[in-house]
Each structure stands twice: as structure tokens, then as C-alpha cells.
């Protein structure tokens, strides 16, 4: 595959993986928790390096999952103690992220791991960091990692689709039916954590937030069915990556930044032209009501 093809594939995988996970965050009104976890996993990455002295993917995944679950746990704990949800997210987010930055500065300043690398990423370098098996290049490591995470996320969604759906729409009913609401919540947080850390080397944590929230928010305006929302969100995420890449080449700007901007542009189009929830549809409905009132 060509250099351009690997970048497009990586961006599409990020958009699809983040898009399907983001749908459940949108439905649970937990979109900003994605921002918190996408930053606090830096602590997990630094911790994994300090323990294993390795930049390998497995320790990073484990560290990210642990800190991602800790973030969700601390937010849930503060929320149960009657701290407002947005304040709880802000306190946990800033504290754990700051701790990660401090540890990074103290113990890993000479390692190829820094805040800019973790938060911004550079998808243009992805095709050069390849996986070799028995001396044969198998393609970029980021593609393999994102592909594995996508398959893992799809497996979890297929196995626990009913539980994820009910707990997202009506957690009280789910609890009454005997569904372990808290366990499903932490399962989703684990998915969010590994999805975030898998995207670090491609688009970076800050831009992962765009892919986690914007495609799901756009899909939410287009359908009332979860299954359709998942497909639409994945499609919008992939299209954002493709459009963003070609626009970035055209204007000679940041590829990752333009991918996020393209996602915002697609959301704006949906927000205006959505058949049911768009501005034009609402304007037409209000005009019709005023005409007959």
C-alpha cells in the first residue's frame, strides 16, 4: 500500500473506532468524560513505562485501561458524594493529568515520550513506524493496533449490545432487570481507554476527542435507532478522516487538525439539513404550526 493509503487507512480506523464508542458516550451524556480520559491516560502510559521500561503496546494498553477505569471510578465516587458531574470530571481530569505530566518530567524526560507527542500526535509519521515479523514488514504498527482495538470494541458491543443499549437509555430499568449497570459502565470506560491510547500515535489525544464526540453527535441527529446510529457514526468518522486528509494536502496544513475540522464541518451540515432535527426542518415545522394556529 502507498504512503497516502496507509495514512487514509489509519485515519479511517481512528474515525470508525472512536465513532462507535462515542455513540454510547453521547447517549449517556458523558461526552466530556472522553476528554478527561483522553488526557488522564497519559498517567497510565507514563506509569506503564516506569514499571516495564518499555514502549511496547501491551504495557501501554494495561496502563491506559487502569488509569481510564480509575478516572471513571473517581468521577463516579465524587458524583455519589453530591459533587456536580462537570465539577467531578474537572477535578479528576486536571489532577491525574497533572500528575502524569509531573512524572513524565521527572522520570521520563529523555525518552521518546512527551506531552506534545501524546496529545497532538502526527499521522504523517505513521507509515514509517512499521511492524516486522521474521524480517518482513507487515505495515504500520498503528494500523495493527487500531485494527485490533476495533475488533475488540466490536466484539464487546456485539456480546453486550442489549446491556449497553438498556443502560444507556434507562439505567434504572436496567438495574430493575438485574443488569449489572456499574459493570457495564466500567466495561465501556475500558473500551474508551484502549481506544484512546491506540490513537495516540496517529491523531493524538486532543484530536481523538473530536472523533469520539462529533461523529456520534452528528449520527444522533440523523436517526432514532442505536444500530443505525453506530453505522452512521462510523461512516462519518471515516469520511472525516478522508476529507480531512485531502483538505490538509490541498491547504498544506496539519493533517490531524484538518481531520477534526472536517468532522466539525460534517456536523454543521447535519445540524442544518437533518431531515428531522435539523435547523431547516425545525424552521419548516414551526412555520407550519404558526400557519395553522
TrEMBL record:
InterPro entries: ABC_BtuC-like, ABC_TroCD. Its main location: membrane. It is found in: Cell membrane. SUPFAM superfamilies: ABC transporter involved in vitamin B12 uptake, BtuC (SSF81345). It comes from the Bacteria. Keywords: Cell membrane, Membrane, Transmembrane, Transmembrane helix, Transport. The keyword Magnesium does not apply. Pfam families: ABC-3. CDD domains: TM_ABC_iron-siderophores_like. One of its GO terms (cellular component) is ATP-binding cassette (ABC) transporter complex. It is a multi-pass membrane protein. The chain crosses the membrane at residues 6-27, 32-51, 57-75, 87-108, 142-161, 173-197, 203-222, 229-248, 254-273. Belongs to the ABC-3 integral membrane protein family. This is ABC-type Mn2+/Zn2+ transport system, permease component.
